[in-house]
Specification:
Blueprint: H1 10-13, E1 27-31, E2 37-41, E3 46-54, E4 57-60, H2 68-73, E5 81-82, E6 88-89, E7 93-96, E8 99-102, E9 111-112, E10 125-129, E11 133-140, E12 151-159, E13 164-173, E14 177-178, E15 182-183, E16 186-187, E17 202-205, E18 209-210, E19 224-225, E20 237-238, H3 247-252, E21 256-260, E22 272-275, E23 282-287, E24 291-295, E25 317-322, E26 339-340, E27 346-355
Antiparallel strand pairs: 1-2, 2-3, 3-4, 5-15, 6-9, 7-8, 10-11, 11-12, 12-13, 13-27, 14-26, 16-25, 17-20, 17-22, 18-19, 18-21, 21-24, 22-23, 23-27, 24-25
Length: 356
């Protein structure tokens, strides 16, 4: 593989062109005392970059782009904050308290990641910014993409000196509405711009059940035990070891499935671990969310990269902490409700801890 590609300073390259609203993007870089840097953008409240000083060499952990034009061209949601509802809602339809709603549909007749104009495409307001954190806020009007209620959302990214990126989500509404926010970062711990894929990464997930889906990602019914399936990551497993190991994976061209996390994860237990094939970087994920979508970048071919080229399939792995897909239509699942009520605040946190 080639050496890591040197890309332009993102604060410069991402602002050479204006965004779709006629103004340049705002780009914020945070750095800790160990030399770890993370970069964010207000368009999509996007996590653009994460570099670690691995054996004296800055190694990029995230897939991403280097221009606003490529950001709009890519359709993989790289690093964006997605909502109102991450993942899928079948046919975009759901009922709340006897009222039927139709959300914007944008993939195979279903609602994916909030619809045609989800939160990943909006300019978020920067409310606070310091050396170690940035707070993005967004207001989504009643009826936005078909969802009920005026929703106020905030996402805070914080970089700590123990090499953790903490993402805190808050939301309030004036009508009952589904909310499911996540970050759609793709990780490649070997160096995202070196041409490696993620198939040699070693993954464990603290969950004994996964959710089978049809060919367009809609749940088929109930959760299923991972035991004796290719979805058993309860012990560390190389991604390629059982890739395309059963019909569920074959229809998705790899892993693109949600796992119900162990209850102990809400009390601080690790939800997932990823280790680079060279053993130099380990990522640990902690979250108060009930589930995690594992996506191995099965359809990334042709997605713009930072070097005026494109990524290939399986270039990165996404670990999206969230509610199970289509949860508005499955109140029987053993997780808290995804319907946020006016009297209750939506409040969740996910932490990505890097060891190197």
């Amino acid at each position: 593989m080639s050496e890591q590609i040197r890309v332009p300073n993102l604060a410069e390259s991402m602002t050479r062109e204006v965004a779709k609203d006629g103004q340049p993007a705002n780009v914020i870089e945070l750095r800790n005392r160990n030399g770890m840097t993370v970069t964010f953008m207000d368009i999509g409240a996007t996590w653009l970059s994460c570099t670690l000083p691995v054996k004296g060499d800055d190694r990029e952990m995230l897939l991403g782009v280097a221009s606003i034009g490529d950001f709009y061209a890519q359709q993989a949601y790289m690093g964006t904050t997605v909502g109102r509802y991450a993942n899928r809602i079948a046919q975009g339809q759901f009922d709340i308290e006897g009222q039927s709603y139709q959300a914007s549909t944008n993939q195979a007749g279903n609602t994916l990641h909030g619809g045609d104009a989800g939160f990943d495409k909006r300019r978020w307001d920067i409310i606070e910014c310091s050396e170690r954190s940035v707070l993005f806020c967004l207001e989504s009007a009643d009826g936005d993409q078909g969802f009920p209620g005026n929703l106020k959302v905030s996402v805070r990214f914080e970089l700590t000196d123990d090499n953790q990126v903490s993402i805190s989500y808050l939301a309030n509404t004036d009508k009952p509405t589904p909310v499911n926010l996540t970050n759609h970062a793709y990780f490649n711990l070997l160096g995202a711009d070196r041409g490696y894929d993620c198939l040699g990464h070693i993954v464990s997930i603290n969950g004994s059940q996964y959710l089978p889906t049809n060919e367009v990602g809609i749940p088929l019914g109930n959760l299923k035990s991972v035991k004796s399936t290719s979805f058993d990551f309860t012990k560390p497993m190389v991604v390629a070891e059982r890739l395309l190991g059963d019909e569920q994976q074959k229809s998705a061209k790899g892993y693109d499935h949600s796992f119900l996390l162990a209850e102990q994860c809400k009390n601080g237990d690790c939800a997932a671990t990823v280790t680079s094939p060279d053993g130099l970087v380990t990522l640990k994920v902690f979250s108060s969310k009930p589930a995690m979508q594992l996506y191995t970048g099965n359809w990334l071919a042709g997605t713009p990269n930072r070097a005026q080229g494109t990524y290939q399939d399986y270039a990165g792995i996404a670990l999206e902490t969230q509610f199970l897909p289509d949860s508005p239509n499955h109140p029987e699942w053993k997780q808290e409700s995804c319907i946020v009520m006016p009297e209750k605040e939506y409040h969740y946190q996910t932490r990505y801890a890097f060891c190197f």
